[in-house]
Amino acid sequence: MNLTCFKAYDVRGRIGDNLDTDIARRIGAGFAHVMGARTEGRALRVVVGRDCRESSPELACAVMSGLRDQGAEVLDIGLAGTEEVYFATAHLGATGGIEITASHNPMDYNGMKLVGPGSRPIDPGSELAAIRAAAESDLEPLATPGGYAPVDTRPAFAAHVCDFVEADKLKPMKILVNSGNGTAGPTFDAIAAELARRGAPLDFVRVNHVPDGSFPNGVPNPLLPENRAMTAAPVRAEGAEMGVAWDGDFDRCFLFDEAGDFIDGEYVVALLAQSFLAGGTGETIVYDPRVVLNTRAVIAANGGSAVASKTGHAFVKAKMREVDAVYGGEMSAHHYFRDFYYCDSGMIPWLKIVEYLSRSGQSLGQCVAEMRADFPSSGEINFTVSDPAAVIEAIVAQLGDAADEIDRLDGASLGFADWRMNLRASNTEPLLRLNIETRGDRALLEAKVAELTALVRAAGGPAAAAG
């Protein structure tokens, strides 16, 4: 059997096409088989959680069946976000964890995110490949199946998230939260209750809060411009000071200021860096190389150490461990925290931003306005091309001689006196992604976007939608 639902980092497939309950059972069995060989005599225990998609409960049951067939004890945390699986895996000392989710993919998709002990990423080249090979084989069930136990780790998770701030020192604030009818609602409620217990003077307005796998307002993906109005409009209508929206499994959160304006991801990275560097901590911050000028400037101004990482959660987590970074951020709204097992979270970022605003005395819009003026950026522009590598080399050949810097960490980044660009192939989609930024010159930004768009089209194909 050839399981095409295995991708670069995880499992994604269309239900009834390349993902069903038999395949899910096989993957559960393959995970237990491979991870069990690494337990070295310790009990094989695997955390399983699921998002609110309509197909997720039966896929979760199938995964758990496969895990138990190979002797794993299943720790079922039920409806939960990906970061709750990360937390439970480390908190319970489990061998690994599996979240059944397709995040922001279309409704007829589902998938799995897999982690190992301590919630470290599964190595794509060795472990994930071995899990796929085992799942594609016909593993015989063990004579004695593994056990099963429902486990409620949400109170401990909520307490851990709230430990990132001093709740009773936050200023009064009205915050609109939009779960998009995804999985975030019940988990957010647990965090809000814990914040209130600790004395946080926060007033929350909830919209699209109840999990609903039919997604009556569309699959939650606030990164898409067409989806932002459903958060922006109620922020303005309610007079909220900040808006928060999550994707389906809430490992990413997206922020809106008091005017309902969307905050681009690179500015959120900079704000979180400032938050962790407050008080002269001198900590190390890891960032992705797509849009960097503002982030580097903020880290330097606040006495931190800036370290770049290749884009992608496995790369960022590995780099953070290597340099002992307190925080790592990607402009795509993935934010990673040393004190959260180096994992990404969609609940910690908005809470840290509330803490930062409480200290600064400024609104979110005021905090970001100067950054936008000093370092305007294009937003990610996507192109469909037949040979991304060839297009990248063609652009470097045309512009490289005039560049002050050429960086090959992730695709190609070219730095010039007044502007910078990064051009890279997506890790997960057949797209070429372009980001451009300037030092305070929006007219130059617009000119360079037009110039690079023409060059990429000439070298490789038509532009796809910006995103």
From TrEMBL:
Q: Which InterPro entries would you find in this protein's record?
A: A-D-PHexomutase_a/b/a-I, A-D-PHexomutase_a/b/a-I/II/III, A-D-PHexomutase_a/b/a-II, A-D-PHexomutase_a/b/a-III, A-D-PHexomutase_C, A-D-PHexomutase_C_sf, A-D-PHexomutase_CS, Alpha-D-phosphohexomutase_SF
Q: List the PROSITE patterns.
A: PGM_PMM
Residue limits of the Alpha-D-phosphohexomutase alpha/beta/alpha domain?
A: 6-135, 159-260, 264-371
Domain spans labelled Alpha-D-phosphohexomutase C-terminal? 380-451
Q: Which Pfam families match?
A: PGM_PMM_I (PF02878), PGM_PMM_II (PF02879), PGM_PMM_III (PF02880), PGM_PMM_IV (PF00408)
Question: Which cofactors are reported in the record for this sequence?
Answer: Mg(2+)
Q: Which domain of life is it from?
A: Bacteria
**Keywords from the UniProt entry:** Isomerase, Magnesium, Metal-binding, Phosphoprotein
The Swiss-Prot or TrEMBL record describes its family as follows: Belongs to the phosphohexose mutase family.
Recorded protein name is Phosphomannomutase
Organism (species): Rhodovulum iodosum
What lineage is on file? Bacteria, Pseudomonadati, Pseudomonadota, Alphaproteobacteria, Rhodobacterales
